[in-house]
Amino acid sequence: MQQIWEATVVVTEFIFSHLVFFNLIFAIAIVFFQRKNPKTVWSWLLLLFFMPIVGFVFYLFLGADMHKRKMFKIKEIEDKLNEAIRKQEYQLKNDELQAHIPDIEGYSDLVMFNLDTTGAVLTDTNDVDIFTDGNAKFDALLEDMKKAKSFIHIQYYIIKNDVLFNRVKDVLLEKAAQGVEVRILFDAMGCRSVKKKVWKKLRQSGIKTAEFFPIRLRRLHLRINYRNHRKIVVIDNKIAYVGGFNIGKEYIGLDNKFGYWRDTHLRIRGEAVMGLELRFLLDWNYAAEENLFTDEKYMSGFEAGCRDNCDMQIIYSGPDTSLQPIRDNYLRLINKAKKKIYIQTPYFIPDEALLTALLIALHSGVEVNLMIPCKPDHMFVYWATWSYMGELVMAGANCYIYNNGFLHTKAVMVDDKVFCCGTANMDIRSFALNFEVNAVIYDEAKTKEMTEYFAEDVKQCTLVTKDMYASRSLIIRLKEQISRLMSPLL
Predict the structure, then answer these.
(1) Active-site residue, 229 included
(2) Strand 123-133 relative to strand 261-269: parallel, antiparallel, unpaired?
(3) Which pairing describes strands 310-317 and 348-349: parallel, antiparallel, or unpaired?
(4) Is 231 a catalytic residue?
(5) How many domains does the chain have?
């Protein structure tokens, strides 16, 4: 024991005596071997040099790229979509698509951008139901799953083994017993509270499960970045769900910490289901190492809706690409706004380009409306959100604090003509570090429905005035400033 103690002391002294050298090595690695935003690089360098050991630990958990290009490869199915993509590109360039689909008038360049960056084919004749309440959403989802005849594909970032998941499991077990194929894809970080025996029991009952980025050591997980934040359900390629609700009792208002949970989820019938099924298959293939594209049924059977005729693109983003398609889609929407912009997001940490675009819109006479929650679930993110919101307040935006529980909606609506809604928050993590999926819907009636929900939510809000923001306490100002300095790392 004495020898072990002496050896430990020697190693510790060596590490502390060479901290400057180690920090220099880490700094070189950050600057020269990882292509990060300059603000992020400087934030990490400052953290490393002023807090050497703590900074290194934080970098391991939050900053390392983990050879992301080796972890995520372009999937072979993308080649099969090239023909449809090239056809729509040709139609857009020759104004043929606009003549066929009038709802995209004025937004053909946005359609082209989404098509070019994510392969998001524009589909029409989609029916869309919008859910803002978790109980209504899950009631509808469970009823749709009960009617499944071939397969149910489920993908969620967070699943908690509680009363809501028990309801979902009961239906899935029943359908699996009837011969329906059931697959559950879950994120290892978001579902870390679910014990392995739960998944094992489901597999023994005929349900297939796959874990995205498995946790190698039970409570130690270095891959805080690159989480699969998507929430997708596809049933028989006839119905799909996408939006903000995860599976847990808080999402149906049964957690006293958050109270009522205000979110937005879409139920889709129509050819846009194909985009969500494709995204699920790609993620499943990666996580489960099972190529489902060899079975034709998973890429067929899509049917047109018959009610709303919504035009829609399903767009994706993630660290498997050097682009940030969802962030750039938001940016393009903001830049194209002529009258009004509505934003609902639980976290508002825009990069410089997005913040500047919103400020330009304000100074150009565009009405900017932002709504964030009153309750923080991540303290540093919350106060950074307040800091960025404050800039918009002082520039003349209408900024609201939602008081009726927790606001988790991720949506941008522009000019009562188009809206983007899905899983991506308006923050750096969603733009660059997480895997996300959104629906872009070019439909006046549905966009107005979304803005009407916003107007109803305003009744439960506090408007942050210039005087209110300017009179905040020194403690709050300090919290904001510290959190904003850390925002590139959040």
Answers:
(1) yes
(2) antiparallel
(3) unpaired
(4) yes
(5) 3
Record the pTM. 0.84
Candidates 133, 328, 351, 415; catalytic one: 415
* Nearest-angstrom CA–CA distance, 313 and 299: 17
Instruction: Answer yes or no: do 269 and 333 share one domain.
Output: no
Q: Indicate which residue of 408, 417, 446, 479 is catalytic.
A: 408
Q: Domain boundary residue among 11, 37, 64?
A: 64
CA distance 213 to 216: 9
Q: Give the active site residue among 137, 229, 238, 446.
A: 229
The reply to whether 410 belongs to the active site is yes
Q: How much is the pLDDT for 358?
A: 98
C-alpha distances out from residue 400 to 347, 390, 455, Å: 13, 11, 11
E-strand spans in 16-147? 123-133
* pLDDT confidence of residue 472: 86
Catalytic residue among 137, 160, 175, 231: 231
Measured from the Cβ of residue 223, the count of other Cβ atoms closer than 10 Å reads 17
For the chain, the helix, strand and coil percentages under 3-state DSSP, each to the nearest 5: 50, 20, 30
The torsion angles phi and psi of 291, rounded to 5 degrees, stand at -85, 100
Contact (CB, 8 A) for 411 and 446: no
The catalytically annotated residue of 236, 308, 311, 351 is: 236
Residue 404: count other Cβ atoms within 10 Å of its Cβ: 15
Residue pair 325/117 in contact by the 8 Å Cβ criterion = yes
Assess whether 193 and 51 both reside in one domain.
no
Residue 83 has a pLDDT of 65
First to last CA, the chain: 42
> What is the sign, positive or negative, of the torsion defined by CA atoms of 439, 445, 451, 454?
negative
Asked if residues 156 and 241 have their Cβ atoms less than 8 Å apart, the reply is no
Catalytic residue among 160, 410, 417, 479, which? 410
Nearest residue to 350 (alpha-carbon basis) of 392, 289, 378, 380: 392
Range of the domain at 133: 74-82+128-308
- The reply to whether 101 falls in a domain is no
Residues in the chain with pLDDT values less than 50: 31-32, 35, 66-75, 219-222
Give the side-chain half-sphere CA count within 13 A for 411: 34
